[in-house]
Amino acid sequence: MPECLHLTSHHHPRQNTETHMKALTFKRYGKSPDIGFSNIDRPTLQPDELLVQVYAAGLNPIDNMIPVGTFKPVMSFKLPAVLGSDLAGVVIEVGSKVTRFKPGDEVFASIFDLGRGSLAEFAAVPERAAALKPTNLDFVQAASIPMVGLTSWQALKERMNLRRGQKVFIPAGSGGIGTFAIQLAHQLGAKVGTTVSTGNIELVRGLGADEIVDYKKQEFENVLRGYDGVLGTVRGDTLEKSLGILRSGGRIVSLIGPLDAAFAEAKKLNFFLKFVFGLMSRKLMKQAKQKGVDYGFLFVRPDGQQLGEIEELLKAESVRPVIDRVFPFDQAKEALDYLALGRSKGKVVVKIK
């Protein structure tokens, strides 16, 4: 009996480090979300999940929007909550129902909107959200892809059904989403129009943009005509202005709102929120209808199968990651602040291991 006691006390300190991890969390919603590092419990695995040791986490603008409460009505987090949605890392353990992955596999994933975060030493990732990391990319490059890759895929392929010879407008082409979406649209055989500042013209041309508007010198709505699709990535009046460049039967897929009733329906939100979102998008819907244009809001969903198809494109080097800056884990908060400035050319990534 005493020997047993001796054993437990002996093992206790090590066990402690094995059950906890360092993570960047926020403690409340609003203007002062209290973002900082916490020592929290490692995630416990569900039967359909992988425990992934996170090597790198890609940042996205939505990571800054969640703590201030922008998406509070539609996304649920248990506070304090871990920040971040994109990750690349190594599978440490698999749940009993997992069939596609084994410990030691190198994977990447988006765990957006699953009530968990990626800016941590470990993350639980549902098997359906994960894909094998492209062998030709390192962890930092792979971590930059999931959210922008899936968003572009779901917007351009699923929603717009973009085909060869069609024209799509992707504003802010040098940003995280823009740099990927331009490449995917180009890959699909579409002509791409975009807006950038003078210094980024060569960058987007190299990614496959065809019509490039220097927004410091020209208004895109005076230059571009006859477009089939618009990817809404920029706040402000860009969406309303882009109605003018679309042909009749064209389609706007917006990533930034206004949220619409269809989204409320899909998220199984209550009647009141459906009504509110309906109102928010009413003006734009009405204008779109008058022009014979379709409007929809896209809230990206994690999807390992699609990520697997994106992995093929990455391996073939048909698309490539574009990374602006890499921050060490202890500067993850600074990385989010830097991203918030909105000046990055491509992606901002935090290197964790």
UniProtKB/TrEMBL annotation:
PANTHER family: ALCOHOL DEHYDROGENASE RELATED (PTHR11695), RETICULON-4-INTERACTING PROTEIN 1, MITOCHONDRIAL (PTHR11695:SF294). Residues 30-350 form the Enoyl reductase (ER) domain. Pfam families: ADH_N, ADH_zinc_N_2. This is NADPH:quinone reductase-like Zn-dependent oxidoreductase. The lineage of its organism: Bacteria, Pseudomonadati, Pseudomonadota, Betaproteobacteria, Burkholderiales.
